Amino acid sequence: MWRGCDMWPWKRKTENRSMTIDEFLAMAGIPNTGSGEHVSSGNAETLPAVLNAVAVISEAVASMPCYLYRVTRTNGVEARTWLADHPVDVLLNERPNDCQTPYQFKRTLMRHCLLNGNAYAVIKWGKDGQPQSLHPYPPRAVVPKRLDEHRYAYTITEPFSGRVRTYLQEEILHLRYSTDDGFLSRSPVSICRETLGLGMAQQRHGASIMRDGLMAAGIIKSGEWFDSIKGAKAMEALERYKGAKNAGKTPILEGGMDYQQLGMSNQDAEWLASRRFTIEDVARIFNISPIFLQEYSNSTYSNFSEASRAFHAMTMRPWLTNFEQQLKAALLLVSPSSGSRYLVEFDTTDLLRANPQDRFKSYETAIKSGVMCPNEAREREGMSPREGGEEFSQAWKQTVEVKGGGAND
Questions:
Q1: Which pTM value belongs to this model?
Q2: Where would you tag: which of 50, 75, 164, 209 has the fewest CB atoms within 10 A of its CB?
Q3: Looking at the 3D structure of the chain, how many domains does it have?
């Protein structure tokens, strides 16, 4: 049968993406670590510590609102205005695309960046020169290419339809983790794959022990050989002491039998210690305190409070700065008027939120010193403003002067 479509010269472009070495090794089942495990961004989260670390960082970023400001400088003094109606601010806080919330979009990008080192989102531009939507794509569907010294292109394969399209760098939001050439980033999973492979091997070893190993709590010794009748009688006698409801009963052993309890071997103890050390190693990889990976063996109330502050300063601040600057570079191609600039900033107030007693003490100090007005403190607590609450305290201007008087004063 004649098929006219076969003679049509214009056909839809199909996927011709080459396979990476990691994808080939994973498909062939070939290990890429010395421990015999294959480690990739696709299976790294089978380690609970990696899953928790990625979740803690990505969810912390996703839960923060990200605002766009215009910063103006007049007579050496900077002032900023929140641009709530700007298309970029609407994308970041209201609707990044037609199928994701802002939380889901930011969490997706951070998760891709933490596991793969690179995160990509296609920018759809409107006729007015402003971004209309941001659509993330999995890193495995993106093939970056260097066109010139400072020009790049991205070939993206649609996961559902298989259609292939090439985008210029102005059409892509590219979030990077850590890069050597300024273009493509290396994944923390690939950099530390030996460490993660060791943890996965320990996990597999524990599973095989549970399945095939001998896990008896104790053994019974006897000086004589038990035939089937004596053996059945001995087992029947021991049935009376099995189970939680019989715990604490003193067994009576007959026929010269002797019970010997089995404790944990040194090998088992070292295996448990190595599992804990894996958690600490994963914490080092993602620059996060083990406390946030549910490892509380060395935690106290005081160091937990310090770890929470360190989480913001050492873990989240670099990620937030990276995200803010990349958003500004990709979405704000047109500069504002002379004498002003744009600023993209995550609101970390909730991350640093103290307990109610400490918060109200800080509000009291800020209001008395004239830094805040009462309504600003009420707004931070989610309360409506009250009449007269916009006035600032003048107590900081007051001075107390003590004059020395004479005997008649």
A1: 0.76
A2: 75
A3: 3
